[in-house]
Specification:
The chain is of the alpha+beta class. It has helices at 24-27, 29-33, 47-68, 74-81, 99-107, 123-136, 154-161, 211-222, 264-275; strands at 114-115, 118-119, 148-153, 166-170, 174-182, 188-194, 199-205, 229-231, 244-249, 255-261, 282-287. The chain starts with 23 loop residues before the first helix and ends in a 5-residue tail after the last strand.
Amino acid sequence: MEGNRCVAGTWNVHPEAPPGRLGVATRTLSSRLSAPTHPPVRRPLSPEEQYIQTERVRELVDLLCAFLDGRKDRAEITRWRRTGWRNAEVDGGGLQGQGMACLVFDCLDDIERRRGDDFLVRREDVAGYVAWLTTRGERGAIGPRPLAAVARSIDSLVTEMRGDTVRFFQPGFGWLVETCFVSATGRGFWAVSDLERGAGLEIRTIRGDDPTEAAQDLAEALALDTPEVQWVDPRIDVAALPRWSLWRQDDNGQRYEMSTFLSYSRAMRECAAFEARGHKQMYWVRRQGQGD
């Protein structure tokens, strides 16, 4: 145990991303948030240890479900956390063989803490913890390194992608918040942000995905443009990412390339904005290098 928190294992922290044009908060995001998005290094459990661990995780899940059903309150969770094996160096430190359970255990240390008009750990966060422990596992499918850092808030991302968030505590990093979303191609992405600072996202995708294809998919899903994204994964072939040009034809039939964009979706948004002004000029989008 570390203080009153469980130590899940050693997290593989990705080095700080190189400086870009996103500002200090986003440039440091990768190094600060890499840890919680992939599973910790851990030793294999013997059958006896696995049996004990299974019973403990079930006990934790039952407690969380009882809270969601109204059969337990926050004070009871706090008392449960401070009794028996849950507060002692027993059999390898309680939950150290199951990194996700240990992470949830840490979050419950602040179950009674207030944040504004609500609790820091919300009911929807507890529901997320149950999903982690019962259906989503340790998120081992998430890639081991960040794909990109994006200069957006997680609230704006959730609104745009119609998702929700889960808050969790990571020792050494503090309280973080995550959301998941899916692109139009069906590719899954995970976004993590600092709860208190709120600015900037670290985004990852499925382990084994082609990073260049994933980068293009992410750009289209979020209608990204160059100033707000910093590609973190060094395997991304930035030169292979297509760029899109917004063209205009004026009243005299002259054609001009107005600007270029990282994503077709962002270029089309800008095109629609110009068309909505009701001018006589024509606007259209083409892939850069394909002529006007």
